[in-house]
Amino acid sequence: MGRTEAAAMIPGIAMFWVAVLGGAAPHTPRLRLSFQELQARHGLRTFRLERTCCYEALLLDEERGRLFVGAENHVASLSLDNISKRAKKLAWPAPVEWREECNWAGKDIGTECMNFVKLLHAYNRTHLLACGTGAFHPTCAFVEVGHRLEEPMLRLDLQRLEDGKGRSPYDPRHRAASVLVGEELYSGVAADLMGRDFTIFRSLGQRPSLRTEAHDSRWLNEPKFVKVFWIPESENPDDDKIYFFFRESAVEATPALGRLSVSRVGQICRNDVGGQRSLVNKWTTFLKARLVCSVPGTEGDTNFNQLQDVFLLSSRDRWTPLLYAVFSTSSIFQGSAVCVYSMNDVRRAFLGPFAHKEGPLHQWVSYQGRVPYPRPGMCPSKTFGTFTSTKDFPDDVIQFARNHPLMYNSVLPMGGRPLFLQVGAGYTFTQIAADRVAAADGHYDVLFIGTDAGTVLKVISVPKGGRPNAEGLLLEELHVFEDSAAVTSMQISSKRHQLYVASRSGVAQIPLHRCAAHGRACAECCLARDPYCAWDGAACTRFQPSAKRRFRRQDIRNGDPSTLCSGDSSHPELLERKVFGVEGGSAFLECEPRSLQARMEWTFQSAGEAASTQVPAEERSERTTRGLLLRGLRRGDSGVYLCAAVEQGFSQPLRRLALHVLSATQAERLARTEEAAPVAPPGPKLWSPFNVLVTMGDITGGMRRFVRLKAPCPCTCE
């Protein structure tokens, strides 16, 4: 099959999967705002450096009020209040000899042999740790940013440059995943020039450097690291674990399935110091489990197996955060999903049975033999045992850990299926950030999902049935980058109510809410179901949980304005607007709802009659997203047309249009009158001009032509 034929099949395949997944094709946002609209009216701010690309590393510093950015050959410091102002930049290019050596190795000197800054961490009160590719010579540096109350500064400490091997990737195409805990850096990275020796590595700090077993596919099999988190297990710091999220080729896949990509969560103990006789300078507590995000079906599950990003949302205690993860598919159809995981479910998988394979010709099964003590994967601490160091672990524990890093049970999402999925939308999910918002009827998680089309989706998680079931509702689609560059990183500031988004082409800043954009009526504000917004009696404004005003109206769970907005007179009375059409031609009655999720209803009231009827669906009338198109106009089509938006069962009148169907003779007479009329001097007008474009048959029976009519009408027509 050629490329053209394969491309032609994709829409059909996407529609097939839409039917299989039983979802809409695809979800439509309530609001879709362009880059120009966001920039002009909704506070979008941007930042970019001249002749610089690849803004991948973002570090949010709320205390200093700064956003630190790592890009090609640069580190920048931006104001969290306005990234377009008070920016400081630091040039950090790779040395000329490194670039030349990179070029001699066959790399492109203009696109690959640069220093792409991949990670930024707050090292102490005055310095950042920054690491970059260094033209295929990974290097790290300490960047001085000064004390919190001082004037912002940005200075590279040239006396403290360090080898970045095992911390930053060599190749700018590879992602960096790391976390700095105390003075220890935990990173998942390719540790060699060829990009074949993938490892989970600990460096810096006082404890010995450790890594995973090299070139053992049971441990890591061509992984792509995504995120790393430090999550405490108890009040005892000796129980702390580091969790790695990545995707890799599955060692447990049968040969018939070929190369199968799966998503994983891996764990290591922070106090691991390696083994005494075996696994020396290697992790002894490394375990991994499959992370499943799939839609159950009668003919098998539909898997979203390409993990793209993970966001850790803190809960009331430090030990049980929620994990929001975005996935895409490796199939030919374009699909993405958001799955939510409980840390208790992750821990349960690591306490379950180990996966075991007796030999090359055997299948993977649950290990039924004796598991040595202490259980592999447990941290040496007084909480769960008497061992104080991994070097004290018995040899059978170390040997079992070496041969059984994979758990048999997978980690399933809460509710057993994705919270939100999108198929055939023309983009895939790349990044995610979340915010927990207090609303009038409870707390809601608001998700911001970055895509490879330069857009950010705003989705809320709403309870559905009993816990833990929930569904994701798509509120907004925001085009934050003019060039549609893929979103590569995101940071959220709940304190400032701002979202910071990075791409290859720059950095964008956008408020978390745009309450005024939802509309000027109570019903519109309530239907928006935005936890950040509420109706205050006069406008849709930001909701303040502490406010004691009686007029704050909000219904996130149901989005039902019928009770909250009953008797509300905030919506102005509809003015009747006149529209003219020509007999036998066409007329377009424009009516575009603010919400893309609204369904339009049209009713018709004939001249001289009191009753209204639904406009029938027939060949002569075509409903579009912007109004109603009437073809083959007749005199009987004259009358009043009422356009209403129906959403969540609530009907809201939008426009009242009086259509006057003229004969061809009347239309020609009006056209001649307009051509002969003198130009009126500027000033107040008793009559307001109303321009209408109509289609009519030529009076002489020739070609169809467009006539622009200017008909006098009362001032209320505009």
From TrEMBL:
Ranges annotated as spanning the membrane: 6-25
Coiled-coil features, chain-numbered ranges: none
Positions of the Sema domain: 30-512
Disulfide partners: C102-C113, C131-C140, C269-C379, C293-C339
Principal cellular location given in the protein's record: secreted
GO molecular function: semaphorin receptor binding
Keywords: Disulfide bond, Glycoprotein, Immunoglobulin domain, Membrane, Secreted, Signal, Transmembrane, Transmembrane helix
PROSITE patterns for this protein: IG_LIKE, SEMA
A UniProt-annotated Pfam family: Sema
GO CC entries: extracellular region
UniProt subcellular location: Secreted
Keyword hit for Membrane: yes
Domain called Ig-like: residue spans: 572-645
SMART domains per the UniProt record, alphabetical: IG, PSI, Sema
Family indicated by similarity: Belongs to the semaphorin family.
Role summary: Inhibits axonal extension by providing local signals to specify territories inaccessible for growing axons.
Descriptive protein name: Semaphorin-3B
Origin species: Sus scrofa
Organism phylogeny: Eukaryota, Metazoa, Chordata, Craniata, Vertebrata
